[in-house]
Amino acid sequence: MSEHTLPANLREQLLATDDRWCVYCHTTEANSGQPMTVDHIVPQAQDGPTSFDNLCFACRRCNEFKGSATTACDPLTGEIVSLFYPRNQTWSEHFAWDASGTWVIGLTAVGRATVIALNMNSTVIVNARRRWVSVGWHPPEP
Ligand SMILES: [Zn+2]
């Protein structure tokens, strides 16, 4: 969904809260040169409402890899767990940057499963982050 098809009040809430970055991988609109997409955290196909509590900004990559998923496998335990839910979970409790600032590390089962499901450390994005880090554009300040 595009932010331009949202009711104005929801668009303003998202802009105020998510500040034009991906709530999953923290890629900024300015770095990617791509407008954020609006992710239904619980997909509309699963009766997820178009309400602030179920919407977030996500980069095109994360949104496409997430698709209609709400759960994924924790690679450490093999358990199926819920994906990160940005409206009632805190990023820093589930994820961290590695020392280089280019790899997202899953700290919890939710974090690990989300990193894998959304392909958050693919070669393409890690190489892009390496360039952003070299000029001080990444990771963004929360
Ligand atoms: Zn992302």
What does this structure look like?
By secondary structure, this protein is an alpha+beta fold. It has one domain. The protein has 6 helices and 6 strands; from the N terminus they run ααββαββαββαα. It has helices spanning 8-18, 29-32, 60-66, 91-94, 109-117, 123-134; strands spanning 37-40, 55-58, 71-73, 80-82, 95-97, 104-106. A two-stranded antiparallel sheet has the order 1-2. It has a two-stranded antiparallel sheet with strand order 3-4. β3 (71-73) and β4 form a beta hairpin. The longest helix has 12 residues, at 123-134. The protein is globular, with a radius of gyration of 15 Å. The model has no long low-confidence stretch (mean pLDDT 94). Zinc ion binds at residues 22, 24-25, 27, 58-59, 61-62.
